[in-house]
Design brief:
mainly alpha, two-stranded antiparallel sheet, disordered N terminus
């Protein structure tokens, strides 16, 4: 896995600027809190130590991509394959589709073989990014399953690629992850790239990897790049989450939360936003006066939006694989 020590000065500067922008926008004032944004030598997001055995089913790193294989009947994915002409469900009622665009039972039967193939197309890139980026591979696979059912298209006009990233979500990640900016920003001005809505839209459009002439309807090269950019985006959210923990407690994030909890909080941030994470950590820390566990976060989360973020994190990290073998 890459080390982020060499990027420490960039991360520190980016953290100070981005924390001020985002937390001020959310109603937080760093100056009033008396905290100075800071960074640890090893980011909590990349410090995979002391993983509890009960969390290993989603934090285990498979030895081979085949260990990530799944074989689910995914009705949204089946519907997309039928609609794209990859699967012929012409003998099914309503051509295999419901009014929502999902496959009906007959359509699912017709598409099953392709559905299983497509949900495993990116297993190797998902595993590879563990070494190059550092996002837990099971988490990333289950996140893609939850967001897009492995269909890297544009959804509802505002959500893109495998992770259904939005424009504001991409701009947020760009401010927190220098490596993401390096990979996707043509402009030499980092600020122009981070804050530009049109630039973010261009980046997001590049994550759409569907292709009418490609096998399974997916351009594999574009899809692999999309996995890499999604991983960097998620890592950007994790870096933001580290800063939120620091701002909420005044302690380095690694002293407050463990590796499993920082990633669950990252998922909460990705889904429900930074204010939910800040409030939850601050409220839990007031009770514990020390390290905060995920159970402590859940116990103090009340707002409907924030509860949705907790539910999202729990769903993605729920037991699916029997790791370790």
């Amino acid at each position: 896995m890459r080390a982020h020590k060499e990027h420490a000065p960039i991360i520190i500067i980016a953290a100070i600027i981005a924390a001020t922008v985002f937390l001020a926008a959310a109603g937080f004032n760093l100056a009033n809190n008396g905290f100075t944004a800071s960074a640890q030598t090893t980011p909590t997001c990349l410090n995979r130590v002391n993983v509890p055995l009960e969390e290993m089913h989603w934090l285990y790193v498979p030895e081979t991509a085949s260990q990530l294989n799944t074989s689910e009947n995914l009705f949204f994915l089946a519907g997309q394959l039928i609609s794209a002409g990859v699967v012929d469900a012409g003998t099914c009622p309503s051509n295999g589709l419901t009014t929502t665009g999902y496959a009906n039972a007959c359509g699912m039967d017709a598409a099953q073989e392709d559905v299983i193939a497509v949900q495993n197309l990116m297993n190797q890139p998902i595993l590879d990014q563990w070494e190059t980026v550092g996002v837990p591979p099971v988490l990333l696979k289950m996140m893609i399953r939850t967001e897009s059912q492995y269909w890297p298209s544009r959804y509802m006009q505002t959500h893109y690629g495998y992770g259904h990233i939005t424009n504001i979500g991409m701009r947020n990640a760009l401010q927190w992850n220098a490596d993401l900016r390096y990979k996707v920003c043509d402009d030499t001005s980092a600020i122009n790239c981070e804050l530009s809505v049109p630039v973010a839209e261009q980046i997001l459009s590049s994550l759409v990897a569907t292709c009418v002439t490609c096998e399974y309807g997916i351009d594999l090269n574009a899809a692999e790049r999309s996995i890499d950019i999604l991983a960097e985006t998620v890592l950007g959210y994790c870096f933001q989450t580290q800063q939120l923990v620091f701002n909420a407690t005044g302690w380095y994030s690694g002293l407050v939360v463990d590796y499993a909890t920082i990633w669950k909080l990252t998922l909460m941030d990705y889904n429900a936003g930074s204010e939910c994470v800040f409030d939850a950590v601050a409220n839990a820390f007031k009770i514990t006066n020390g390290p905060v566990k995920w159970a402590d976060i859940k116990a103090v989360t009340r707002d409907d939006l924030c509860v949705r973020g907790v539910t999202y994190a729990d769903a993605i990290t729920a037991k699916y694989f029997n790791f370790p073998p």
